[in-house]
Amino acid sequence: VNVRYMAWVVEAAPAAAPSAAAPTSLPLLQCTVVVPHTAVVSCVTMSRDGRLWCSGTEGCGRVFATSTTVREACWLPHGGSASVHPGESTMPASTHYVRDACFIEHHGKQLVVTGSEDGHVRCFDLAAPDTQRTQRTAGPALLRHTFSGHGGDVVSVTSATTPCSPATVLTGSSDGTARLWDLETGKAITTLRPNRTLHNGGSRDEMAPPVELVSVALSPDGVVAALAGEGLFFFDVRTPADFFSSHPQQESAVRFSPCGTQVASTSLDGSVLLRQTRDLADPAALTPHRGMAFCTAFSPCGNWMLSGGTDKVVQFHHLPSLTTTATLQGHARPVVSLALSKDVLLTSAGTSDACVFRCDLP
Question: Pairing state of beta strands 43-46 and 52-57?
């Protein structure tokens, strides 16, 4: 992998209300690596242990090892046809972008599930090319399942994160539905349909136009689904029943905290909100972006939440003190995707580069 090194600036955020609980030191970025791609990087995500990361781009996903030197482990081919079969390792080239991806550890295997503009969800097994061997040239991962059923772009993919959570995948689509899939069989378990008439206590109107989804999140225990579109919608997937919807503004991203007690969301009006799951109706407003806010990510410890937007910066929000302590400057275009481990930050800014930062949070 050819990489480039660039200079970046971490600055203290403009002071809001002083807080004794806020950290006094800034986040430390020890190294920056820019990994070029042949097309725009639409998303970045990281494995739970931080050892692998994945980018989504035109026609495929790419998986890298987060070692001292960035090394491509394998790639995730997306064919132009839905008629692909488990076990295939090569497929026709596709011009459809991979819109989102997530890592899943299942029965000792490392899986990656992707959502694509062709409306399909694909599950890859990273054991096909051995991702632990540094001498082997990167090759295609093994396709286990293709999940079909969405009628639009699959824009968001996520899963539960606790060891005892169900083996399920939640996907969101521009067709106005979110689907919960069984990871073993590749079959849809349930379909969630947010309804815009539920805002402000209204009754459900089945004839209302669908809410085009842009992001979905699943609580760590796999019980609660959060869907973002024209508002936020929360469902109990066991029922499945929607039990809360927010004010109908255009949301752009939603994420659960690692422990599941908080939900972060960003909106196209620039707002960055933090909700407690026990009281979803009373969000805390963090420092907004100048322009639209596009993405958010939690640190594994749950003390930090990051956000990015059209102002080309990444904001560092310290959650115990509810303060925005720092901003990362240097992206040339809006920040559209973020991922964070205990010591690595990934960003994508709507270009053909993915940026890897060695990150030390105070």
Answer: antiparallel
Task: Write out pLDDT tens, residues 74-95.
Answer: 889 886 443 344 444 444 467 8
C-alpha distances in Å from residue 305, one per residue of 84, 90, 298, 308, 313:
38, 38, 4, 11, 14
| Tokens linked to 66 | 């987060």
Nearest Cα residue to 252 out of 221, 289, 293: 293
- Res 131: pLDDT: 44
Q: What is the mean pLDDT of residues 276-305?
A: 95
How far is the C-alpha of 308 from the C-alpha of 290, rounded, in Å?
10
Q: pLDDT tens digit string along 211-230?
A: 899 999 999 999 999 999 99
| pLDDT at residue 232 in the model | 94
Q: How big is the CA angle at 313 (ends 311 and 317), to the nearest 5 degrees?
A: 115
Query: Alpha-carbon distance 168 to 218, whole Å?
Result: 10
**How many residues make up the chain in this entry?**
362
- Alpha-carbon distance of 57 to 75, in angstroms, equals 11
Supply the DSSP string of 266-320, one letter for each residue: EETTS-EEEEETTEEEEEEEEPPPSS-EEEEEE-TTSSEEEEEETTS-EEEEETT
Per-residue DSSP letter, 194: -
**Which residues are CB-neighbours of 207 under 8 A, at least 6 positions away?**
none
CB 104 within 8 A of CB 169: yes
297 phi and psi angles, rounded to 5 deg: -155, 145
CB proximity list for 278: less than 8 A, separation 6 or greater:
261
Whether residue 250 contacts residue 232, with contact meaning beta carbons closer than 8 Å, is answered with: no
CA distance 16 to 337: 26
pLDDT of 112: 96
Residue 218 three-state SS: strand
Q: Indicate yes or no: pTM above 0.90.
A: no
Most confident of 25-39, 199-213, 260-274: 260-274
